[in-house]
Amino acid sequence: ISRSSAHKRRATGGHRPAYRKKRKFELGRQAASTKLGPKRIHTVRTRGGNEKFRALRLDSGNYAWGSEHVTRKTRVISVVYNASNNELVRTNTLVKGAIVQVDATPFRQWYEGHYCQPVSKKTAARAAAAAAAGADGAAAEEKDKPKSKHCTRKVEERKKDSKIDPLLETQFGAGRLYAVISSRPGQVGRADGYILEGKELEFYIRKLRAGKHK
Q1: What are the C-alpha distances in Å from 142 to residues 132, 145, 146?
Q2: How would DSSP label each residue in the chain?
């Protein structure tokens, strides 16, 4: 695999004469094709003695929730959309720019701890049912603990900004969030990214729906 353009034709269509052999600095390597699975990373020695981290399998990453300024490590569930190739969706291949579904639990737990209220009606109903069954006694006890006036004021102030996107709320109800991978798994050995929101989320939901109707 070569990244040199010595073998390409001229813009006019004519052949270029070969004036040298391939060079080491022109080399290319095989694609990593990172798959979903238990973490497996190989190191690759590169020019200058540096290293690349070739992720062969990954199952989690750090995802940022931009509007709330919070990042959590979470499990990657599946690849749902890739603008470049549907084959990468079918084979669950993790690449930069791929749209994935991630586990919403770490973000839900943070939201409920930060704002002291359920993230969606569905999760509120679930929590009420668990409390009624007595399964979550410790959590209920924590909730009923008396809070100082300062703490109460702080939480009430936070609640003014606690409104989240209805599309995100629906996803929290299902326990899965749409996210995009912004790191390069085959180069840095990580599948990190950010949670989709706003116009970008609407755009990809439209794309996913269009794909289902085909």
Answers
A1: 15, 5, 9
A2: -B---TTSPPTTSPPPP--S---GGGB-------EESS-EEEEEE-GGG-EEEEEEEE-EEEEEEGGGTEEEEEEEEEEEE-SS-THHHHTTB--TT-EEEEE-HHHHHHHHHHHSS-SSHHHHHHHHHHHHHTTTHHHHHHHHS---HHHHHHHHHHHTT----HHHHHHHHHTEEEEEE-S-HHHHS---EEE--HHHHHHHHHHHHHHHH-
pLDDT category at 145 given cuts 50, 70, 90 is low
The model's pLDDT over 20-69, given as tens digits with 9 standing for 90+, comes to 999 999 999 999 999 999 999 999 999 999 999 999 999 999 999 998 89
Count of C-beta atoms within a 10 Å radius of residue 157: 9
Mean pLDDT of 192-213: 89
